[in-house]
Design brief:
single chain; 144 residues; alpha/beta; 4-stranded parallel sheet; 10% strand
Length: 144
Amino acid sequence: MEAKKRLINIIKDSTDEVNNSKLSNPFYGKKIFFSDNCTGPKINRTTLIGYIGATSGTNKELSKDIDYCVIPKSVYSNLLDGNVDSITENIISLIHNKSDKKSKPKNTIPETRIITENTLFSLVYRFVKNDPVKMKHYNKLHIS
């Protein structure tokens, strides 16, 4: 239970950090990892984040070199309702990792911010809304 609350707090804090950033684009130059079940094909997501100066994490697994982990809104909603799926289990195992039974849990991805697709794509929208070509890509992944 403690690990779920910790993950919820990390997501809330990460979202607040993005929404209240003094930087006009907090994703510029950052590596973004999309968890399973995110909207649309990877190529479309990668194209969109390229428009804001970010890159897609090259690993298939979340690791400490990733700046932002993006999860589907449904995963976050389920977590708030107390439900844990494979995505949240994986993230919880990384932020609440125990090397042995006697040690305290250690966050193996301490610098990674965890946000929902909605948080990321609301910022992307601000950057692409006046460009018809970029909006075409955005609309392919429109997050409601």
